[in-house]
Amino acid sequence: MARFISVVIPNRNGEATIGKCLDAIFSSSYEDFEVIVVDDASEDASIAIIDKFPCRLLRLEKHSGAARARNLGALHSKGDTLFFTDADCLLQEDTLSIASKTLAGEGPDVVLGGTYTPMPYDRRFFSVFQSAFINYAETKHADRPDYIATHAMVIDARTFRENNGFAEDFLPILEDVEFSHRLRRAGYRLRMDPQLQVRHIFNFSLLGSLRNALRKSLYWTIYSLARGDLLADSGTASTELKINVGTYALGALLLLLAVLTGQPLFLLVLPPLIAFNLFSNRGLIRALSSTGGPAFALAAALYYVLVYPLAVGTGALLGALRYLAAAERPRPA
């Protein structure tokens, strides 16, 4: 018997994307579903757009965050299965069918995750890089992912309620990571289905890509320090990314020492260091090539190795400083 799925979407000033998001959902080949949009006190034209679709609209009078919005949507849902996604994500025609079929074969003790399509909705260079990077990182350990992200999280409704949903007093982001870790500690199993995909709308410029990397790295560092697993191989916070940032920092230090001391011997370490970094990230480079071809993979690899670590590393440093200075630290899961 097909599951009745409640698709829950938080929206905050999403007028640029929420219409596309809802249009994609209602183009689904799956029939037994409802859509609940929880508007988080938007100040744009989101409501007028949402009202054009046959979904249920709930409104928060005060900006309260995505976790609160998702919890409210789940509270008012009718489905035996919850599908969480974002207002800038486009479900594929078969996304709900895949979710229903896969979860039916697993049972209520499994939380199912999906990921982004390698190619995003917009074809800007930094958007394609981000989508391919996340797809690779999130599906690398499909049978044992460290977390399930809310751009495509499928969970039994009773399981969600019995575990009190998303923490609303947590960090501004990463509530899905905290919830995943809490569920796993309670004995539930996380599983990623690489075929369960949504197409994301990034519209990333260089600045947008770097700002996103810095922000996520900042809060991830705070959370990881609280848990004591800063070096864990965890989705987009992968071992490969940490090697990339580490070799970038070491390479910069060697360059600085060469300049300050006038000793070119420091530079001899750079080629093997770069080779080690590229070898460690060979899986990502293959994924970039598969997504956009060799020329794109070359440009994206150069961005990933030479520029991206600066934002990630800066975010990590700021996160560590904020964690050490905070009187009240986030609750570790």
Mean pLDDT: 95
Helix content: 40-55%
Instruction: Give the class-level CATH name of the largest domain.
Output: Alpha Beta
Q: What is the CATH architecture descriptor of the largest domain?
A: Alpha-Beta Complex
Order of helices and strands, N to C?
EHEHEHEEHEHEHHEHHHHH
Distance between the termini: 35 Å
Portion in strands: 15-25%
Low-pLDDT ranges: none
Count of spatially separate domains: 2
* Largest sheet geometry: 8 strands, mixed
Radius of gyration: 21 Å
CATH superfamily of the largest domain: Spore Coat Polysaccharide Biosynthesis Protein SpsA, Chain A
Q: Name the structural class.
A: alpha/beta
Shape: globular
Question: In summary, what is this structure?
Answer:
With about 325 residues, the chain is α/β, with parallel strands linked by helices.
What would your notes on this structure say?
The chain is of the alpha/beta class. It folds into two domains: 199 residues, Spore Coat Polysaccharide Biosynthesis Protein SpsA, Chain A, CATH 3.90.550.10; 129 residues, no CATH class. Helices cover 49% and strands 15% of the residues. An eight-stranded mixed sheet has the order 3-2-1-4-7-6-8-5, sandwiched between helices. α1 links the parallel β1 and β2. α9 packs across α12 and α10 packs across α11. The protein is globular, with a radius of gyration of 21 Å. The model has no long low-confidence stretch (mean pLDDT 95).
